Amino acid sequence: MPLPTSCTQPPPRPDARLADKARERQQVLTKPPGSLGRLEQLAIELAALQGSESPSVDRVHISVFAGDHGVCDEGISAFPQAVTAQMIANFASGGAAISVMARELGAQLEVVNLGTVGEVPALPGVWHQVIAQTSQNLAKTDALTHEQLQKAMNAGDQAAQRAADNRARLFIGGDMGIGNTTSAAALACALLDRRPEELVGPGTGLDAKGVSHKARVVQTALERHGEDREPLSVLASLGGFEIAGLTGAILGCAARRIPVLVDGFIVSVAALVATRQQPGVRDWLLFSHRSAEPGHQSVLAALNAAPLLDLHMRLGEGSGAAVAVPLLRTACALHNQMATFADAGVSDKPGA
After folding, report:
1. Of the four listed, 92, 110, 244, 315, which is most buried by Cβ atoms within 10 Å?
2. Who contacts 151 (Cβ-Cβ below 8 Å, separation ≥6)?
3. Average pLDDT of the chain?
4. Catalytic residue IDs
5. Architecture in CATH for domain 57-337
């Protein structure tokens, strides 16, 4: 199975002409220019990304990628791996945070199961694209084989295609996988040339001793991996099924002209891999929130990203991105529905 073409071909560029038209409209709405702050820029960006004079975030597609991690053998998580499969069932039954948020937003929610230690039965809204029960232990060997990497990235690309088929105006990727903050931290350390002590955090709730152990595990993995910084090689060596799936989805959405609202630490690391593979992907990314996970700030800085919210969240699942959707909807409503000075018969001349 070859990698998706989005891995090898640059994505399209946003529509600069429509960005200019949206910018011009913002200048003649009944408000002082710039007075709505970042809401103005969001509307301009969405107009360019969606290729529309009337940007909209009415149709949102959420794909949560799930996968277990072999590095859990090193005792790096406060929760057992059985939780991953249990949470897939919780997503499907509507009880998870992202399930509630998706209902509130009227968003399409799906779960992509790429491999869990626990058994997952057939469930509504769950795509079973199991690669293996778990990735390999990244502290001892490559986490994914080349074939597994291809399968995971193709599963992500297929999720992007489903979003396109559903005429989504915005894509949100979420993650579920016990141990995935260890994998994400290792990826970030390798790609950003940072020390584990700088980026490794508590994940699901480790104490200081647990965080120190986790950092040592990441250091062992980095030493095993060596100096190769080719993004997909790093992803195969240090990643996980769900992070590779998210990377494929982000690349696939950019290729299909679908804006991506990036969630927290895990998804931002997948976005970092995607932009290292195809730099033009960065144009298609909006950033929702600043995670409480310590490594997220460094990843955001590397992506030149200014997130919209800082609510001290660190749940994953796409939850931080879902919370930010109403801001995008507000930006679009103001852009599309406010009167211009001419429409309202209001003077736009200072002192008039």
Report:
1. 244
2. 1, 114, 129, 131
3. 96
4. 317
5. 3-Layer(aba) Sandwich (3.40)
